[in-house]
């Protein structure tokens, strides 16, 4: 549920989410390059759901523009009329063939006389539905729809874009980072189509992934990013590295945009975990390969959407696995959203970064975490903390740091204690475009302060003589190999073995 006001001439827009729980402002007229403002509830250990103002300014490369909730209908065709939401509406549709799948984008609209002193009706949107690729950072097959409960074209009062003078807007505290793209998640759900002024390859890419750009200038900039990325993908694949890349929805994205999909932030210092209790591990006593999915200890791959909340997915995955072992086979989907909403007081920053141990510390104080079913669905946005109104399960007694950089230690931890929360260096184009094979990146870092993404190690094995970790990502099952990546265990590549943790119950 959202409320939107769009004022193109003044370059301002405002979108409220979930009944005003989160308010976002896109102010293109602010400063040299515009500014994004987010008013969101922040819960610490001292205060609960305090309205907080967070701000990110545009740059010369990425200016802030107002955000509409109406898609471009270029290429759509009217296919008749249909009853939708209780009204008989005109139906417009765009159909695209994407490999073996069909993409459908549908807009239902009616015509009403809403302008004073005019008999000419205007089109009023009723519903927009997207079955296929969404368009910003998490572009994968899915099903979204927007219902337009009310729509008008009245003049917008300037006060709409004002907020309390008592609020001081600042950047993120703790380990978080300013993400331009998590400030405007609505852009992900308004699918666009643009097929002009592009060469054949870029046109194919745009059609496949449903891309649209803000004018010819951005189109040319995106095309250049795409050209460099596709050259990179082909050059890597020619090197026969043991893994392959493929063109995906990220092929026109800048590094800043890709960074919005990563949210593990290192804040320094000892994390408070217990030392790994096992010494002198006999590798021959461990299985040669292992996969917790086979035993039913892993929930389906999820999608963090346009929210730097990977830290909550790695954490919850480890807790779900530990609870599965504790209850002798009961797999329950636990709530990432609860950690996003409620653990600010321990240094996490919701959609803008965090660390697993901070969530463990929050759980130790509060006695567990709610189920997704009871707390409510994942929002892809910061929300009101309401754990006091739900039951908390899966209480933990502590958390353990697996001995760093020891392959046998991590293998033993996985076998004995379930899926393990790990952090990796995911800041490389090879990772963004990973398709299959054992991923080894020569440029990857493994120092603790160089890891920027939190994931879940659910197993290990060997492929073509190369040891790997089976890693569950949170970029949907349309990324990588059904949402998973085989990450090389050689030389602690990308840092899988640097900071593994698990919980005790």
Verbal overview:
The chain contains 10 helices and 20 strands. With 505 residues, it is of the alpha+beta class. The protein has 3 domains: 82 residues, no CATH class; 136 residues, no CATH class; 244 residues, Cathepsin B, Chain A, CATH 3.90.70. The strands form 4 sheets. Strands 11, 13, 15, 16, 17, 18 and 19 form a 7-stranded mixed beta sheet that branches. Helix 5 crosses helix 6. The radius of gyration is 24 Å and the shape is globular. The two termini are 38 Å apart. About 3% of the residues have low confidence. Keywords: Disulfide bond, Hydrolase, Protease, Thiol protease, Zymogen. One of its GO terms (molecular function) is cysteine-type peptidase activity. InterPro entries: Papain-like_cys_pep_sf, Pept_asp_AS, Pept_cys_AS, Pept_his_AS, Peptidase_C1A, Peptidase_C1A_C, Peptidase_C1A_papain-like, Prot_inhib_I29.
State the separation between the terminal residues, measured CA to CA.
38 Å
Number of helices: 10
Biggest sheet layout:
7 strands, mixed
Question: Helix and strand string, N-terminal first?
Answer: EEEEEEEEEEHHHEHEEHHHHEHEHEEEEE
The first-level CATH class name of the largest domain = Alpha Beta
| Poorly predicted ranges | 134-140, 192-198
What is the total domain count? 3
CATH topology descriptor of the largest domain: Cathepsin B, Chain A
State the fourth-level CATH superfamily of the largest domain: Cysteine proteinases
> Using only CA atoms, what is the Rg?
24 Å
Strand content: 25-35%
What is the SS-derived class? alpha+beta
C-alpha geometry: globular
Number of strands: 20
Helix content: 10-25%
CATH architecture type of the largest domain: Alpha-Beta Complex
Mean pLDDT: 86
């Amino acid at each position: 549920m959202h409320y939107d006001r769009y004022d193109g001439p003044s370059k301002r827009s405002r979108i409220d989410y979930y009944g005003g729980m989160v308010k976002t402002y896109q102010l293109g007229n602010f400063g040299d390059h515009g500014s994004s403002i987010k008013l969101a509830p922040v819960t610490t250990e001292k205060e609960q759901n305090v309205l907080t103002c967070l701000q990110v300014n545009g740059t010369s490369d990425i200016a802030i523009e107002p955000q509409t909730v109406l898609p471009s209908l270029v290429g759509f065709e009217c296919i008749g009329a249909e009853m939708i939401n209780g009204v008989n509406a005109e139906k417009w549709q765009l159909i695209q063939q994407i490999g073996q799948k069909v993409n459908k984008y549908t807009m239902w609209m009616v015509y009403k006389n809403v302008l004073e002193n005019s008999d000419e009706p205007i089109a009023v949107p009723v519903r927009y539905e997207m079955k296929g690729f969404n368009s910003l950072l998490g572009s994968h097959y899915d099903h979204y729809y927007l219902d337009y409960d009310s729509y008008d074209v009245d003049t917008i009062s300037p006060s709409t874009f004002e907020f309390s003078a008592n609020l001081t807007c600042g950047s993120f505290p703790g380990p978080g980072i300013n993400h331009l793209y998590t400030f405007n998640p609505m852009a992900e759900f308004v699918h666009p189509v643009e097929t002009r002024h592009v060469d054949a390859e870029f046109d194919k890419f745009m059609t496949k992934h449903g891309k649209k750009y803000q004018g010819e200038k951005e189109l040319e900039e995106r095309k250049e990013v795409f050209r460099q990325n596709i050259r990179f993908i082909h050059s890597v694949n020619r090197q026969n590295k043991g893994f392959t890349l493929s063109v995906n929805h990220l092929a026109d994205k800048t590094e800043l945009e890709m960074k919005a999909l990563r949210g593990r932030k290192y804040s320094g210092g000892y994390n408070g975990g217990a030392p790994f209790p096992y010494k002198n591990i006999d590798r021959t006593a461990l299985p040669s390969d292992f996969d917790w999915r086979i035993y039913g200890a892993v929930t389906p791959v999820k999608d963090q959407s346009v929210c730097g909340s990977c830290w909550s997915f790695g954490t919850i995955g480890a807790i779900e696995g530990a609870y599965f072992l504790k209850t002798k086979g009961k797999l329950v989907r636990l709530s990432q959203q609860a950690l996003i909403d409620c653990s600010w007081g321990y240094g996490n920053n919701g959609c803008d970064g965090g660390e697993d141990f901070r969530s463990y510390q929050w759980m130790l104080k509060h006695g567990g975490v709610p189920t997704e079913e009871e707390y409510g669905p994942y929002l892809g946005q910061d929300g009101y903390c309401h754990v006091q109104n739900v039951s908390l399960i899966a209480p933990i007694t502590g958390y353990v740091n697996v001995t760093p950089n020891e392959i046998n230690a991590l293998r033993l931890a996985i076998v004995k204690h379930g899926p393990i929360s790990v952090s990796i260096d995911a800041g490389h184009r090879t990772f963004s475009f990973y398709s299959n094979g054992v991923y080894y990146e020569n440029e990857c870092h493994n120092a603790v302060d160089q890891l920027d993404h939190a994931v879940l190690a659910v197993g290990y094995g060997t492929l073509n003589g190369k040891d790997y970790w089976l890693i569950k990502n949170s970029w949907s099952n349309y990324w990588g190999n059904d949402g998973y990546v085989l990450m090389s265990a050689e030389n602690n590549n990308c840092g899988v073995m640097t900071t593994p943790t698990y919980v005790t119950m």
